[in-house]
């Protein structure tokens, strides 16, 4: 995970940037190399921001698009715009814990379970796994319901309109979600906090209104290096990340009955 999955993500990757495109290519490449044969697509759109219109691209990967139910594992892959230090202009914000590590963890999970997921898909199980790497999770200026969560708000609207299974008139992709597990701000040595997401952001409101349980995995209290240039790989507490990854492997295996 540390070298193959994480290292290529540790770059400035604001929406629409060269770094964002490079990270997208990296995620596509890793998923494409797996034997489970993921269906991967980019959900691109343009949204107004405090800095004008910006192009965003969510990455959506589904193990079996035809399965009636989905366990959704998500994180955001964009990094916040943090001005560089004038004394060291080459140092940029890479957002290791927020959220390069969660992205790498998701890739590690499906890599570790690849053969089991391949068999699971062949058995045409009723519950499948979907990965979502959100773009535009960070605010461009001050966090608000309008300046944040661009990718997740867009996807919530899309999923609420797309019939699932195809041809259905009663249910949508949103109705198909059993549970959303959101990996967020992971890597600090603090205890991990897991609970129902209680913010009023429209993406989560839409999920909760549709009866979808939401689990938010995040460090508490927030680490001192949050949204600073110090959120780098050397600040990541490897044992915390490795232990949580092991827990999630077992959770996925049990939930999907691998």
TrEMBL record:
Keywords, ordered alphabetically: Acyltransferase, Transferase
E.C. numbers: 2.3.2.5
Keyword Magnesium: no
MF terms (GO), sorted A to Z: glutaminyl-peptide cyclotransferase activity; zinc ion binding
Known catalytic reactions: N-terminal L-glutaminyl-[peptide] = N-terminal 5-oxo-L-prolyl-[peptide] + NH4(+)
Protein name: glutaminyl-peptide cyclotransferase
Enzyme superclass (EC): transferase
Domain Peptidase M28: residue ranges: 58-199
Pfam (any one): Peptidase_M28
Family: Belongs to the glutaminyl-peptide cyclotransferase family.
């Amino acid at each position: 995970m540390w070298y193959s999955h994480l290292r290529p993500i540790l770059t400035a990757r604001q929406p629409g940037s060269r770094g964002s495109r490079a990270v997208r290519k990296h995620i596509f490449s890793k998923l494409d190399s797996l034997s489970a044969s993921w269906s991967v697509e980019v959900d691109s759109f343009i949204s107004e921001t405090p800095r004008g219109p910006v192009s965003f691209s969510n990455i959506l990967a589904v193990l079996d698009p035809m399965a009636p139910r989905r366990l959704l594992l998500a994180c955001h892959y964009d990094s916040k715009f943090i001005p560089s230090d004038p004394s060291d202009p080459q140092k940029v914000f890479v957002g290791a814990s927020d959220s390069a590590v969660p992205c790498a963890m998701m890739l590690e999970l499906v890599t570790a379970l690849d053969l089991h997921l391949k068999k699971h898909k062949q058995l045409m199980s009723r519950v499948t796994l979907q990965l979502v790497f959100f773009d535009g999770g960070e605010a461009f200026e001050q966090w608000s319901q309008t300046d944040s969560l661009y990718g997740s708000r867009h996807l919530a609207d899309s999923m609420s309109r797309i019939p699932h299974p195809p041809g259905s008139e009663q249910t949508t992709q949103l109705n198909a979600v059993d549970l959303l597990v959101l990996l967020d701000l992971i890597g600090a040595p603090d205890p991990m906090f897991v609970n129902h997401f209680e913010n009023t952001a429209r993406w989560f409101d839409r999920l909760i209104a549709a009866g979808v349980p939401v689990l938010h995995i995040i460090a508490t209290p927030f680490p001192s290096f949050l949204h600073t240039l110090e959120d780098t790989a050397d600040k990541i507490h490897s044992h915390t990340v490795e232990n949580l990854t092991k827990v999630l492997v077992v959770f996925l295996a049990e939930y999907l009955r691998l």
